[in-house]
Amino acid sequence: MKTNKWKLGLLVWSAMFPFSTIISYALAQLPFMAHWPLVARTFCLTCLLVPYMVCVALPFLTRRFQKWIQVTPGQGDIEAAKQQTLPNQSVEIQAQTGNVPPSRQYALS
C-alpha cells in the first residue's frame, strides 16, 4: 500500500500535538515536577507520548483514514511517466522542441 507522506504526516501531527500539549501542561502542574529541568520534563513527556502514538493513536488513525492516506490511481502519474521515459524518448522530445544537445543528436538519425 503506497501512502501519501504529507497526509500521513498530517495524521501524526494531529495526534501528537494535542496529546503533547495536554501532557506538558499536566506535568508542569505537578508540584514535584514544576521545578525539574526542561530536559527531565521532556524525557517524561516522550516516555508517555511514544507509547501512546505507537499503540493507540497511529493504529486507530491509520485504520480510520486508510482510504484517504492511500495514493489514488492517477495521482503521481506525471512523476511515474517522467521516471519511465527512455533516453531515446527524451531525445525525441528534445528534438521536437529544438533543444537537443550536440552530443545526443546521433540518436535521432
Helix content: 55-70%
Taking pLDDT < 50 over at least 5 consecutive residues as the criterion, the unreliable ranges are: none
Shape by Cα distribution: elongated
User: What do the pLDDT scores average to?
Assistant: 80
Global structural class: mainly alpha
First-to-last CA distance:
43 Å
Number of helices: 5
Structure description:
The protein is an all-alpha fold and 109 residues long. It folds into two domains: 5-69, no CATH class; 74-100, no CATH class. It has five helices and no strands. The chain has helices at residues 5-29, 38-64, 66-69, 77-84, 87-97. The model has no long low-confidence stretch (mean pLDDT 80).
Explain the layout of strands and helices.
Elements: H1 5-29, H2 38-64, H3 66-69, H4 77-84, H5 87-97
Transmembrane segments: 38-61
Keywords: Membrane, Transmembrane, Transmembrane helix
List keywords for this structure.
single chain, 109 residues, mainly alpha, 2 domains
In short:
This protein has 109 residues and is mainly α. The protein contains 5 helices and no strands. 2% of the residues are buried.
